Amino acid sequence: MAPIRPKSQLKKLWRFIQRENIDRLLLVLTLLVLFSSIGLTLTEPDLSLLDSLWWSVVTLTTVGYGDIAPSTLIGRVIAIINMVIGIGVLAIFSATLASILVDRKIKEELGMSNYHFEQHIILCEWNHRAASIIRELRLDPQSTQTPIVLVADIERKPIDSENLYFIRGQVSDETLNRANLSHASTVIILGDDHLEETARDAKSILSTLTIESINPHTYTIVEIVNQTHAITCRRAQANEVIVSSNLSSMLISQATLNHGISEVISELLSFQIGNQLYKIPLPHSKINQPFIDVFIYMKQTYQSIVVGMQKGKEGKVISNPDTNEILEQGDYLIIIATENPQQQAKLQSENSNI
């Protein structure tokens, strides 16, 4: 993670203030307050400089408490100047701030902004599957607040979702840099539904190559249509390749042979109802223990079923391991549970400390 440099941030802020002419407005307001404060102090014998300064700010902001009022002719002339000029300058200042906020909102909606998030998710292409992905991610407590940056060649931000940000354009070096790819944790590449099958997969593979060339450390998930393109996609260094047509076909064939199995799969893949799949670190107490012991422990303690394991966070995945398989430090468990056991363990720890 790049270090934060206060001087650099201050320079950017100052350039922004100069570009929007806020520095001139602040200078006029400051001079007006100083002029009226000093003038009132010299013309009003009963007022100190601090009281005059207080009066100038209160009058300038049109609050008008009435606790201080000039009594001399010159003091009242100064008050008139303060009111007439001050209200005008303050109105311009307020309008400038409002226009900056409106302009920023319009740029965000039209995908013209740059973002500097870290450990965020980048979603490439927009379609009905993208909407479902965002909805599911928001249902998982681990990703509820995670920023998602959508990169798509559409006119404006497609949905109003918290922590969803939009960049308009094709997947390229320019759009990916605007999405701060160098600090992203995960990139999801969906197929372009407007293209035919071969061109669609080719575009996904080209996007993968572009992403991996900029940040080879980000975790890349790629959706393709044709199984024959999976090898090419993996050569492009994609971490996971999902063949959407194969998944649908296999689910339908399994439902044909085993009626009702599609409902179980749908439940496991959705955060909306019932049980879900989770990947959790191996509990410390079960390091160097056989799989069967871990299986029994997870079922008895958390009412969860261990269906697989992974050697390291992104290593080889083993489904239904052998009962004598020794689990080591750094391994992960893939489980079925109604809620994440890590959250349960945290809650139990908090309750035990009360």
Question: How confident overall, as mean pLDDT?
Answer: 87
N-to-C SSE string, H for helix and E for strand:
HHHHEHEEHEHEHEHHEEHEEEEH
Query: Can you identify the CATH superfamily of the largest domain?
Result: NAD(P)-binding Rossmann-like Domain
CATH fold descriptor of the largest domain: Rossmann fold
CATH architecture of the largest domain: 3-Layer(aba) Sandwich
What percentage of residues falls in helices of 4 or more residues? 40-55%
CATH structural class of the largest domain = Alpha Beta
Tally the helices.
12
Describe this structure in words.
Helix content is 49%, strand content 15%. The protein has 354 residues and is an alpha/beta fold. The protein folds into three domains: 14-99, Helix Hairpins, CATH 1.10.287; 121-248, Rossmann fold; 275-352, Alpha-Beta Plaits (2-Layer Sandwich), CATH 3.30.70.1450. The chain has a six-stranded parallel β-sheet with strand order 3-2-1-4-5-6. The chain has a four-stranded antiparallel β-sheet with strand order 7-12-9-10. A two-stranded antiparallel sheet has the order 8-11. Helix 2 (22-43) packs across helix 3 and helix 2 (22-43) runs antiparallel to helix 4 (73-109). The radius of gyration is 31 Å and the shape is elongated. Mean pLDDT is 87; it is low at 350-354.
